[in-house]
Amino acid sequence: MGFKMGIVGLPNVGKSTLFNALTRTAAAQAANFPFCTIEPNVGDVAVPDERLDKLAAIATSKQIIPTRMTFVDIAGLVKGASQGEGLGNQFLANIRETDAIAHVLRCFEDGDVTHVEGRVDPVADADVIETELMLADLESLEKRLQGIVRKVRGGDKEAIQQERLMKQAVAALEDGKPARTVEVDEDDLKAWKMLQMLTSKPILYVCNVEESASATGNAHSAKVAEMAAAQGNAHVVISAQIEEEISQLSDEDAEMFLSEMGLEEAGLDRLIRAGYELLNLQTYFTVGPKEARAWTIKEGTGAPQAAGVIHGDFERGFIRAETIAYDDFVSLGGESAAKEAGKMRAEGKGYIVKDGDVLHFLFNT
User: Fold this and answer.
1) Whether the Cβ atoms of residue 54 and residue 330 lie closer than 8 Å to each other
2) Could you tell me if residue 268 is left (phi over 0), alpha (psi between -120 and 50 degrees) or otherwise beta?
3) How many of the other CB atoms lie within 10 Å of CB of 175?
4) Measured between alpha carbons, how far is 125 from 117 in angstroms, rounded to an integer?
């Protein structure tokens, strides 16, 4: 299990350049004109994790299989997209299929790259996109409310729940607030998610800065950071141009390039980590001579459900999970040594998996 993040933004803010860098491909055409991305490009990328390499080295695993995540490069939205301007309706539908939104904002000055509004103001750009998504949600909810009137009158419990939740969302949207600001009871979470509202998705602002500001950010990205903090959203600073250059280099050359730029790590790593935090995701590992593999789960996932990520039979027939903490596995030098030192635990159905756990599941077939 990974997650799907949609990359959105106004035209010419660097979305496709960032997508190319993230997926190490040239699948998305990066050109200086609006709507150069017509169909949503989908890139499935490995999630880098140094822990997996260390575990594989200790276990002498023949194969290393990282967990994966999916990026969807969605064409540039424009003002009026909710009313079908540009290619709005098609792209709004693509956003609905993602788990989270990476909102790329132009935080660089460059007279050679056209801005659709003729100015560089990332906060205003963010407002344009958010407004379009809110208008699209409002229109969708109002239509759906009309469509369930008969079921509500007939006492349909599911329809009554949907109506209540939709009215809560409409009230927030009409007040100029995205659906994600609505406090939803745990019992309603599943039904709330089924509404597939664009503005209920968590947002990560990606500040695309010029090369010289890649390590420290600039005045534009500072304004975005302030906005994100006020909203309770996350942000990262990236130079899409640099990331694209790095993606074409060997690992050794990339490390040297990053060092010269004053960067500790590639923007991809920062973006993935921010995405994990945004969706409350974490990683556990399975390790053996054949392969060392990473698996992504939600924080708070129980051992049987974590086993189910590998195969449904593992969850259905779950007996126990032989568990070693990552630090113990590494410091003691592997499974056998950890077991001898009493660091392997037999955890049952009630165990909540921790980030970095090395697990071996026992189950009935």
Assistant:
1) yes
2) alpha
3) 8
4) 9
Query: What does the block give as tokens for 43?
Result: 């890139």
Helix (H, G, I), strand (E, B) or coil at 179: helix
- Using an 8 Å Cβ cutoff, are 132 and 74 in contact? no
Q: 3-state class of 105 per DSSP?
A: strand
Q: How would you class 72 by CB atoms within 10 Å of its CB: exposed for 0-12, middle for 13-18, buried for 19 or more?
A: buried
Helix (H) or strand (E) holding 361: strand 358-363
Backbone angles phi, psi at 94, to 5 degrees: -65, -35
Segment 90-126, tens digit of pLDDT: 567 778 888 899 999 999 887 666 555 667 899 999 9
Contact residues for 308 (Cβ-Cβ < 8 A; gap 6+): 314, 315, 316
3-class secondary structure, 121? coil
Spell out the alpha helix ranges (H) of the chain: 15-23, 50-59, 88-96, 122-147, 149-153, 157-174, 189-194, 219-231, 240-247, 251-260, 267-278, 303-310, 312-316, 326-332, 335-340
pTM of the complete model: 0.81
- Report the residue count for the chain: 365
Nearest to 162 by CA among 136, 199, 207, 193: 193
pLDDT tens per residue across span 237-265: 999 888 888 888 887 888 888 888 888 88
- The DSSP bridge pattern shows strands 100-106 and 4-8 to be parallel
Query: Is 47 in contact with 2 (CB distance < 8 Å)?
Result: yes
Q: What are 344's strand-pairing partners?
A: none
